[in-house]
Amino acid sequence: MSAARRPARRPARGRGPRLLRDFVPPEGVPIRLEVAGLGARLAAQVIDIVVTLLVLVAVMLILFLGLEAPESLLLGVGAALFFFIRAPYYIVTELFWNGQTLGKRMTGIRVIATDGRGLDAHAVAARNLMKEMEIFAPGTAMLAVRDMDAIGYLALGTWIAVLLAVPLFNREHQRIGDLIAGTCVVVQPPLRLLPDIAAAATVSAATQPEEAAEFAFLPHHLGHYGDYELQTLERLLRAQTARGEKAAAARAAQVQAVAERIRSRIEYAGRVEPERAEDFLRAFYAAQRAELERGRLFGRVRADRHSPRPGAGA
Amino acid sequence: MSAPQTAPDTAALRSTRFRAEREPGWRRLESILERAERQGMRALSFEEARDLARLYREAVSALSVAREISLDAALRDYLEALCARACLAVYAPQETLSGLAGRFLRGVPPAMRRSAPHLGLVLLVTFLGALVGWLLYFQDANWYYTLVPSGGGDPRGPDSPVGQLREVLEGEHDGPLDGLAAFASFLFSHNARIAIFCFSLGALAGVPTLLLCLYNGLSLGAFVALHADRGLGAEVAGWLSIHGVTEIGAILVAAAAGLRLGEAVLFPGPFTRGDALRRQGRDAVKLALLAAMMLVVAALLEGFGRQLITDMHTRLAIGWGIGALWAGWFLLGGRGGRA
Which residue in A6, A221, A245, B271 could disulfide with B275, CB within 3.0 to 4.6 Å? Predict the structure, then answer.
């Protein structure tokens, strides 16, 4: 169990999600949002390019089907049309779908204004105009890379390196257009309200009083752990949907091991049968949470088991 | 430990009661959000729109309470997500296409007037470049090859006979495809690219923008000098004017927009560079869009106007007439109402 390790204060340990700082809507309550990964953004961009290219092909087919046009004309008109299709596409979709293009919808990300207010037309136009310079201009230049001299290679290389460096090396993964527009791409947070474990435990205790009597915790049992351990236990208890017999057996073993460790640490005198380990943990979770939350009401916050015991000095 | 112990099995946890009391409201907010996100705010009924705002504020307040009193991580995560989604829905952009176009058109002239110093600077640099280009050509005609980019198949140069130059200036093309081809090739021609770079490289302290303006002026000066040298001064003026007034104007506008970004990087004043970029960006983006618009007009003039109208005086009149229209719009437009 990770509870055995010294817990990190910040969730950004290892590959934790990057969180957007300072997103404060006008209501004044800061809201936590996760910055979108570069992979998701790249995927969204590819989807958008494919969509606009399909539209371009359709329009070109309608325009030039049956006409014998020289290749240079086709290329020229195609390049111009592509611009006149994609520029409004990005601006209009992001504006009317509240920060999502088709690609962003599919990958579950969206554009927001970092200042906590709504996106406005200016921000959307700015970030998508800069996209011309950041994505399409170097992209076109790379297509023409064959007839380029050494200076051209160098210039193109530096340009692309700078463009890549900006989103890679800032914390919110903002590209230059995002910086000028004051926007940021975040993950669309999923809405999932899981049942309250403590409520389930107290309800079952109320309906079956003899079970509650089985696991009764005294104050000295509840002084060992802090918020971090409680929420680690919550994660363990929520990870129920283990599929397959093997996984179920592994989880049962884990639950028993955790129950045994907690039992010995808090010096709980009663017996905990292996098949009752889960019930023991649920009851302990409810009791421990009640204790810690009561402490919070009186201003005694205990972050983890290493922080000083609340009330020890009182 | 002195805190009195109440067994958790007699009374539900305070945070559990807190959640039970508010959960129906959150669920309703969730269902309204679902509709708003999928079908847009216009699909909401009056009651739903009213409840969305009220329930959102309740949820935000619940989030701030839950952060203090609840240790249920699942509940906190849910409230964070719910508030974020609801906030983005409540403060969603409320734009219509016509409103957008109207605001842009009303915003451009004031933005132009605010950028007058930058415009003056790029104009000065371009003019100096043109002067130097002109002088260099008369010093040694071979400078022409260095200064003027040799477009694919453009036969004009110091070695060309007068007749050939005149032919290009007055040449007539016909057929709709020719006009279309000229239109398309123009858009991705040399000058359109210069305009794009002028704007987007402005963020690099404005130096590339000014260099590009100087270079553009140099080639313009040498080009005019070549024709003036052969006694075709008036003709080249007409040939250039019909689209050039708008086109060179577009380059200047794009360069001025780039300079404003460069100014933000060089002289952010009391702001951080990022904030300064954002502030200057408001006008710069308007100018960039305007430059794009002017380039399209110039492309239309080049693709169709220049081929159809070959009389020099008409060319001059149309070119400068449209130039005067732009200038009038920038000077007089958007004065009433909010800028």
Answer: B271
Residue at B116 is within a domain: yes
DSSP three-state, residue B318? helix
Q: Is A238:B74 a contact under the CB 8 Å cutoff? A: yes
Torsion of CA A59, A64, A70, A73, to 10 degrees: -40
Contact criterion met (CB < 8 Å) for A192 and B78: yes
Dihedrals phi, psi of B78, to nearest 5 degrees = -60, -45
Q: Does B335 touch chain A (CB under 8 A)?
A: no
Q: Give the DSSP H/E element, type plus range, for residue A87.
A: helix A71-96
- Hey, is the C-beta of B73 within 8 angstroms of any chain A C-beta? yes
pLDDT in tens, A163-213: 888 888 888 889 888 888 889 999 998 888 888 877 766 655 555 555 555
CA dist A158 to A133, A180, B90, B212, Å? 14, 21, 42, 18
Q: Is residue B74 less than 8 Å (CB to CB) from chain A?
A: yes
- Record: contact A199-B13, CB cut-off 8 A: yes
Distance from CA of B298 to the nearest CA of A (A): 14
Task: Characterize A170-187 residue by residue with b for buried, 16 or more Cβ atoms within 10 angstroms of its Cβ, and e for exposed.
Answer: eebbbbbbbbbbbbbbbb
Asked casually if ipTM beats, i.e. exceeds, 0.85, the reply is: no
Cα–Cα nearest to A227, from A308, A306, A295, A292: A292
Do B275 and B255 lie in one domain? The reply is yes
- Grouping H, G, I as helix, E, B as strand and the rest as coil, residue A29 is coil
pLDDT tens per residue across span A93-140: 998 888 899 999 999 999 999 888 888 888 898 888 888 778 887 787
List CB contacts of B101: < 8 A, sequence separation 6 or more: none
Q: Residue B89 and residue A133: Cβ atoms within 8 Å?
A: no
Burial tier of B214 (Cβ tally within 10 Å: 0-12, 13-18, 19+): middle
> Does some domain include residue B8?
no
| DSSP assignment string, B128-163 | HHHHHHHHHHHH-TTHHHHHS---TT---STTS-HH
Tokens of A285: 């979770």
Q: Is residue B7 part of a domain?
A: no
**Residue B11 DSSP label:** S
Among the candidates B90, B120, B143, a domain finishes at: B90
Is any Cβ of chain B less than 8 angstroms from the Cβ of A230? Answer: yes
Chain A's closest residue to B87, CA to CA, is A25
**Cα B105–Cα B109–Cα B114 angle in degrees, nearest 5:** 135
Q: pLDDT at position B52, please?
A: 93
Domain boundaries along the sequence of chain A: 18-187, 197-297
Distance from C-alpha of B88 to C-alpha of A208, rounded to nearest angstrom: 45
Under an 8 A CB cutoff, do B69 and A297 touch?
Answer: yes
Residue B5 lies in a domain: no
* Closest-approach residue (CA) in chain B for A229: B71
Q: What does the alpha-carbon distance between residue B260 and residue B202 come to, in Å, rounded to a whole number?
A: 7
Mean pLDDT, consecutive 10-residue stretches, chain B (339 aa), reads 42 81 93 88 89 94 89 89 92 82 88 92 93 88 76 62 71 54 60 74 79 88 85 80 85 91 89 86 88 85 74 83 91 69
CA distance linking residue B84 with residue B28, whole number of Å: 16
Q: Which structure tokens are listed for B263?
A: 């100014």
Q: Which of B250, B74, B200 is nearest to A196 (CA)?
A: B74
Do B268 and B182 fall within a single domain?
Answer: yes
Domain span at residue B68?
A: 14-90
Closest CB to A216: pick one of B7, B14, B73: B7
